[in-house]
Amino acid sequence: MSINEEVLVLLDEKRLLEQELDKLIYGSIEIRDNKYIYTHYRDEGVSITKYAGEYSDDLCNLINNNNIKAKEYKKRIRTINNRLNQFQVFDSLKEFKYSYNVDFAKSNIINMIYDQSIIENINTTYIDTEDLIENGRIHNMNQESVLKITNLKRAWDFILNEYILTLSTSYELISNVNKLVESGFYYNAGILRSTPVRITGTKWLPTIPNKENIRDDIDKMINSNKVKVDIAIDLLLYICKSQMFLDGNKRTALIIANHYLISHGKGLLMISADDSNKYKELLLNYYEKNDKKELIKFLKEDCYIKL
Predict the structure, then answer these.
(1) Residues 61 and 160 reside in one and the same domain
(2) Is residue 285 located within the same domain as residue 256?
(3) 3-state class (DSSP) for residue 87
(4) From CA 231, how far away is CA 222, in angstroms rounded?
(5) Which of 26, 43, 138, 292 is the most exposed place for a label (fewest CB within 10 A)?
(6) Using CA of residue 127, residue 118, residue 245, residue 185, what is the dihedral sign?
(7) 27 & 130 share domain
(8) Are residues 210 and 173 in the same domain?
(9) Do the bridges between strand 268-269 and strand 36-43 make them parallel or antiparallel, or are there none, so unpaired?
């Protein structure tokens, strides 16, 4: 297993452990007013107090059992962190050369998620998207829309992780992003499709993807002599047109293109919601006629923000 692959596996395991930890009610028990149970625990050195519920023997037993689980989860997370820190290439973001680009991306993350939502015909507004991401409040959205937006947030958080930003673009990275984007929709999220797919609006059919060909194609792209924004656009178009996965290819492609740009400190690709129809029309033209001249021009002139 290569270093890149091991890091992705470790980070995926760490993410799942942290999710399980968040679900647990655990900590030292405090009973207030002889009726209400509160728990106390530390998270990254910070003391946290949470209300657990009204007193019952069952709740106390649950918390005690969860304390055992939480201890095991935290121990494994520490082991993962220690292993990640062994890779000398992974410095903290304080030493990361392009931390300004990371900050710029984080400050625009709601804009980017909203824009991607509109491109995917998700029924939302900017305000509703913002409230969901920042406060967890749901307005006028069905369950599918909520899941797609929260998945986008998780995928963006993933590629902005300090370890992930040091990784080269690879099939494994692309696969992990698609797994996050399509989480909860497909059991085979992040796995190359083995069946034909149709794209709305065109009769053009993509071929069945081949993993080794994809690896070779990506290596050629990222090792070319082109300027970084052109390589990022090549990655975007390649992932879109190859339709590697059953769904989520456009979302995956844009996130991967931005990972490449951010990791090189070269800005962002932001396709505005107002330009979503134009973007999709140019994509269809590219699929059918293999003519990407106008699409590349649009992406570079209207969507690229250089830093």
Answers:
(1) no
(2) yes
(3) coil
(4) 6
(5) 43
(6) positive
(7) no
(8) yes
(9) unpaired
